[in-house]
Design a protein that fits this description.
The complex is a heterodimer of chains A (116) and B (115). With 116 residues, chain A is mainly β. Helices cover 0% and strands 53% of the residues of chain A. In chain A, a hairpin with a 6-residue loop joins β4 and β5. The N and C termini of chain B lie far apart (36 Å). The chains are: A mainly beta (116), B mainly beta (115). The interface between A and B is medium-sized, with 23 and 26 residues.
């Protein structure tokens, strides 16, 4: 099993719909979770992070974390064509220790297309 | 959030040559990292750049191929040595500003093409 795995894409939703992006991860102790958005030809941009079980909302974005089931998801409400991008899930394992602390392990990314 | 500047933003290089990529952060950061993103792929960590000591490399990456320096808390370089077409990728610098519960930010990346 890959350490971080995202639902296969590409994902296409109509404008105004809810886009749901999912990510599962290997259990290696305490973790932090990040969602990045990457437009074509650009570097990743952090849009959400979550550390605790439950939901975290920021504008149109909601991150959901379920540690018992080892998944983290990102919901985008009222999707817009400008949301079309690759979404990257990343995990940081806090017990990596030493000089490995802080590194991120990324999923393979999910391409989202929001069509008018 | 910290602002990370990378240069060059892109380059086309001949095989067998080396390229050094620079990463400058506008404030002191705890950790700096170098990632590679091959065409159509996700990000893979190359190494953690340690201030004042040798970098910590991930499996599959070695110092002879990717020497890294970090002379202070705001600057790091990555060299891609003896390049081959397989090294054509985007190379990204990342930084953490705080030790605990920190969010990593990325530079704009260096798009390298080896011919």
């Amino acid at each position: 099993q890959k350490e971080v795995e995202q639902n296969s894409g590409p994902l296409s939703v109509p404008e105004g719909a809810i886009a749901s992006l999912n990510c599962t991860y290997s259990d290696r102790g305490s973790q932090s979770f990040f969602w990045y958005r990457q437009y074509s030809g650009k570097s990743p941009e952090l849009i959400m992070f979550i550390y605790s079980n439950g939901d975290k909302e920021d504008g149109r974005f909601t991150a959901q974390l379920n540690k018992a089931s080892q998944y983290v998801s990102l919901l985008i409400r009222d999707s817009q064509p400008s949301d079309s991008a690759t979404y990257l899930c990343a995990v940081r394992w806090a017990n990596a220790g030493g000089t490995s602390y802080g590194k991120l392990t990324f999923g393979q990314g999910t391409i989202l297309t929001v069509h008018p | 959030s910290a602002v990370i500047s990378q240069k060059p933003s892109r380059d086309i290089c001949q095989r067998g040559t080396s390229l050094t990529i620079q990463c400058q952060v506008d404030s002191q950061v705890t950790m700096m990292f170098w990632y590679r993103q091959q065409p159509g792929q996700s990000l893979t960590l190359i190494a953690t750049a340690n201030q004042g000591s040798e970098a910590t490399y991930e499996s599959g990456f070695v110092i002879d191929k990717f020497p890294i320096s970090r002379p202070n808390l705001t600057f790091s370089t990555l060299t891609v040595s003896n390049m081959s077409p397989e090294d054509s990728s985007i190379y990204l610098c990342s930084a953490l500003q705080l030790l605990m519960q920190a969010e990593a930010f990325f530079g704009q990346g260096t798009r390298l093409t080896v011919v």
